[in-house]
């Protein structure tokens, strides 16, 4: 696959974006989804190397996410959560602060991705730290529900196991793609330890502050439902007390109350407790004698026998009519058509005789309205249950929070349940700062520290690498110059004997021909073949070296140059020496060699023969002629029996 189509960096970034998106899709589907879509487009543009387009789209994404991010980061004292909420509603009709901002971590990761795209940075550079942090976060997330089952998990969207799985797979994919980049970069991992410590500390701190915040919210929600309970109890006690007083007031009379009296007494109570929809006088045979208020519904009940029309209430009514005991019905469908409950109180006359009972019917919807009126609807949903049925409810059921509080409540001899489910955004708005901020700041700080240490270590690494390559370069230069010197030396010297070679000799001679007289001596070791044949080539080589050493030393002392001319032949250039002097020098070398303890196989010392030639006239030297003449003289020396020096004469 071509590199431009699927570059590793773009792929890594896609993986990061997808990982954060998994959570987003489950939680905040509006702005974040839009941001995600934009980022995907930017990634696509980056993959096609359209960097300018990619940068533009990524910058738009950054801008889109900024208000959400700001809403997390600006302290409540500067911009209140309610202000953010009204801003959110203005940007997107019907939106809340929760739809405007993605979960904090996800927002950060999306923004980082956008930033990485804009800067074209290698996101995988910091990946070891980020991947470990993400793994720890997910691990913490996985065990958190077991540790604190009552609390909202740290990242509540990631508790769903498919989301956890997707995260784990994406993390793994990221590691696989980043591994080749990390390989061999030891400093990448050695820079990890300190920031990793910081990550762990900020995770633990975050977990603690998260738990603390959860506890605070829990307590506040408890307090809210507790206050409703207290109010309810007070209300019920008050109205029962009032009704008992109302009922006792008939004990002064001898006859059952007429409508005028009944209405006159009941009016005040009904005004104070407006959820009492019917205050009736019941005769001993369960007939409805008086009702208040005189609504058409209530008036239509007059004369009915409750034992007949409302047999469900018989069990509560009979004790009041016969045994002078109070009784309450279950939650029933009232004859007025509402759900409610009837409380029966016995009525005695002045002679302490049962003359009937007071029936007080209360409507639950109206009672709930009275009790819940002071509670803002936006804070959550409060419900009243009995036998699994909802009797009344108040508040907003959209965006419910994670907790529901249940409280048992006694209503007469009946048991009801009051439940409260605060809205999540209401809970969060009660926190001055979200605990996730401490995590994000901690992670950002750890990442910065990581980058600093990483950069320092990388610089150190590069410095060391540079030093190393400098050293090898210097070594290379040294080796090369030694080689060069050797090559140059070899070009001018004889490898075996170490004296000048023929080429150097000839070059030297061509440049030093001015002096007069000027002599040339040609030496040849006598019967050298025998040395090789009888004593071996190694001995032959050794003899050659010793001869060269003697010759170089002697000729050098006379200001000349001594060279190996080839095989067992040597040549000397002796400026300033006439033929006699040169002959003497050559003879000295002959004698020195004879005394040098270099014997033939028969014990006789090896010897040499030499031909010497000189020039005195100022004419330019004819080198060829000189060499020929010296060679001829040498030849004569050999022919004359060897071990001698013969002077040659230049013809003409
Ligand atoms: N060990 C050794 N032998 C060499 C080297 N160069 C030439 N020779 C030998 O030198 C010998 C020269 O032999 P010849 O030219 O026949 O002459 P010679 O035996 O010295 O006899 P004359 O010169 O006539 O006295 C040969 O056997 C060569 O192999 C060398 O570098 N090392």
Automatic annotation (TrEMBL):
Residues 288-347 form the CHASE domain. InterPro entries: CHASE_dom, Diguanylate_Cyclase, GGDEF_dom, Nucleotide_cyclase, Rev_trsase/Diguanyl_cyclase. It is an enzyme of class 2 (transferase). It catalyses: 2 GTP = 3',3'-c-di-GMP + 2 diphosphate. It comes from the Bacteria. Its cofactor is Mg(2+). SUPFAM superfamilies: Nucleotide cyclase. Gene3D superfamilies: 3.30.70.270. The chain crosses the membrane at residues 12-41, 53-74, 100-118, 125-143, 155-180, 187-206, 437-456. This is diguanylate cyclase.
